[in-house]
Amino acid sequence: MTQNELAMTLARILLLKEGGGKLESFESLLCLRSYFSELTLDELHGIAIEYGIET
Questions:
Q1: Which residue has the higher pLDDT, 24 or 34?
Q2: Structural domain count of the chain
């Protein structure tokens, strides 16, 4: 999985998880993805592990 794919996956999963099972807005997804895309791959993996998301 590339860094961008992982960033998008994390953004989608966390929005669904924290948003009660529904994706609230496309803007929120893009904002979160933008934030995650600035992180390193190691940092993204750390976030995934912290939230129990398999990568």
A1: 34
A2: 1
